[in-house]
């Protein structure tokens, strides 16, 4: 258990509404990641953070923004949700020295 | 760009038997890590095993072992004495810069009683 929680665990929203997902960790890890999981695609990186206020884009960042104002929280925002963003979202932390990522329980997001 | 390929979408194995899941990858990095993750129906991503690319010795964790062929860029997972609880989706993954992971598409493993 890497002390990672995600909230909410499930959310249903409507197209065009803003949505924020929260990832919280308790072990002061520097690196945090957001992935989405879709059938036939495995997990794909959306954004990641390498410190407070330090973030960068991943493979599928369009339509998403992130913020990290404190070490323990990494927020993922969908500014205007679309049906293509219906997915399961995972947060992860990186645990050195072996570059191993541990994952939160996931958030299932449905955009109607 | 890094790629991870899992070409078998599904496999099935009889309980107590051995099964091997295949994975190939491509990377330009000289130092990297490879992983197998398990995702049971609960959806939780669980680390199964990790391999450092600079180590020639294959990693082993109880009933799980890997066959790491660096020159061939191959990284297969062997599960011995399969158990019903091994039924899950398995993902092969590779680290890149800033420890970002690239995943394969996954393989669904079913263990038959």
Describe this structure in words.
The complex is a heterodimer of chains A (112) and B (113). With 112 residues, chain A is mainly β. Chain A is 0% helix and 60% strand. In chain A, strands 2, 4, 5, 6, 9, 10 and 11 form a seven-stranded mixed sheet that branches. Chain A has a four-stranded antiparallel sheet with strand order 1-3-8-7, with no helix packed on it. Chain B has no helices and twelve strands. Chain B has strands at 3-5, 10-14, 19-21, 24-26, 33-39, 46-52, 60-61, 64-69, 74-79, 88-95, 101-103, 107-112. In chain B, the strands form three sheets. In chain B, strands 2, 5, 6, 10, 11 and 12 form a six-stranded mixed sheet that branches. A four-stranded antiparallel sheet of chain B has the order 3-9-8-7, with no helix packed on it. A two-stranded antiparallel sheet of chain B has the order 1-4. In chain B, a hairpin with a 4-residue loop joins strand 8 (64-69) and strand 9 (74-79). The mean pLDDT of chain B is 95. Chains A and B meet through strand 5, strand 9 and strand 10 of A and strand 5, strand 6, strand 10 and strand 11 of B.
Helix/strand layout:
The complex is a heterodimer of chains A (112) and B (113).
Chain A: E1 4-7, E2 10-13, E3 19-25, E4 32-38, E5 42-51, E6 54-57, E7 64-70, E8 73-78, E9 87-95, E10 100-103, E11 107-111
Parallel strand pairs in A: 2-11
Antiparallel strand pairs in A: 1-3, 3-8, 4-5, 4-9, 5-6, 7-8, 9-10, 9-11
Chain B: E1 3-5, E2 10-14, E3 19-21, E4 24-26, E5 33-39, E6 46-52, E7 60-61, E8 64-69, E9 74-79, E10 88-95, E11 101-103, E12 107-112
Parallel strand pairs in B: 2-12
Antiparallel strand pairs in B: 1-4, 3-9, 5-6, 5-10, 7-8, 8-9, 10-11, 10-12
Question: Could you write a compact summary of the structure shown?
Answer:
The complex is a heterodimer of chains A (112) and B (113). Chain A is mostly beta strands and 112 residues long.
């Amino acid at each position: 258990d890497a002390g990672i929680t995600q909230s909410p665990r499930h959310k249903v929203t409507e197209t065009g509404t803003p949505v924020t997902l929260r990832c919280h960790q308790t072990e002061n890890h520097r690196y945090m990641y957001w992935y989405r999981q879709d059938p036939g695609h495995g997990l794909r990186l959306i954004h990641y953070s390498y410190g407070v206020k330090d973030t960068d884009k991943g493979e599928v960042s369009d339509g998403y923004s992130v913020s990290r104002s404190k070490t323990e929280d990494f927020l993922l925002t969908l500014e205007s949700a679309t049906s293509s963003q219906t997915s399961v979202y995972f947060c992860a932390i990186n645990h050195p020295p072996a570059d191993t990522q541990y994952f939160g329980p996931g958030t299932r997001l449905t955009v109607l | 760009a890094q790629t991870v390929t899992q070409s078998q979408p599904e496999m099935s194995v009889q309980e107590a038997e051995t099964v091997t899941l295949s994975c190939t990858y491509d990377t330009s990095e000289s130092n990297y890590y490879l992983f197998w993750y398990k995702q049971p129906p609960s959806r939780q991503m669980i680390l199964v095993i990790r391999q450092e690319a600079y180590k020639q010795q294959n990693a082993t964790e109880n009933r799980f072992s890997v066959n790491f062929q660096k020159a061939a860029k191959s990284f297969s997972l062997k599960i011995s004495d399969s158990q019903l609880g091994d039924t899950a989706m398995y993902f092969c993954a590779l680290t890149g810069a800033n420890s970002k992971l690239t995943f394969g598409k996954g393989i669904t493993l079913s263990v038959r009683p």
